[in-house]
């Protein structure tokens, strides 16, 4: 009878260890900074901003130049794509500073607020209890 209790205790301890390891791994994953996080230091931030702006303008201008050469138009596509590249560069800088990274479509903040609204409205007893 003592052997069966020891076996159950070992299984229970192994289960607790496994759950603790999973919780610790989840916490480490949550604490890890996202890829869209701002780099540390003013020089790093300014370098990223400059790179985003210059890359947008250069890529847009190059695509416009190629389209002008291919379609035999003068500076039409070059000018249009120059400004579109500048706008794209500014949009990338805005994404860097707001922490949205390169997310497309709905952002996480909109998903979270709609999830909270649906949780609160579906359970009238628990209104506002799970909101963080």
Give a structural overview.
- 74% of the residues lie in helices and 0% in strands.
- With 132 residues, the chain is an all-alpha fold.
- The protein has two domains: 1-31; 42-127, no CATH class.
The strand count comes to 0
SS element count, helices: 4
Contiguous runs where pLDDT drops below 50 for at least 5 residues: 121-132
Topology order in helix (H) and strand (E) letters: HHHH
Strand content: under 5%
Task: Give the end-to-end Cα distance, rounded to a whole number of Å.
Answer: 48 Å
Which quaternary structure do these chains form?
single chain
CA radius of gyration is 26 Å
> Strand count, sense and closure of the main sheet?
none
Total number of domains: 2
Net shape: elongated
Fraction in helix: over 70%
Structural class from helices and strands?
A: mainly alpha
Average pLDDT value? Answer: 77
């Amino acid at each position: 009878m003592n052997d069966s209790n020891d076996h159950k205790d070992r299984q229970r301890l192994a289960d607790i260890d496994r759950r603790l390891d999973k919780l610790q791994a989840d916490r480490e994953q949550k604490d890890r900074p996202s890829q869209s996080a701002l780099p540390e230091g003013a020089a790093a931030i300014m370098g990223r901003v400059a790179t985003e702006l210059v890359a947008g303008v250069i890529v847009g201008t190059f695509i416009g130049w190629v389209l002008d050469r291919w379609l035999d138009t003068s500076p039409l596509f070059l000018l249009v794509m120059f400004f579109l590249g500048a706008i794209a560069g500014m949009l990338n800088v805005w994404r860097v500073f707001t922490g949205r990274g390169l997310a497309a479509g709905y952002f996480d903040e909109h998903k979270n607020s709609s999830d909270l609204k649906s949780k609160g409205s579906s359970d009238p007893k628990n209104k506002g209890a799970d909101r963080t």
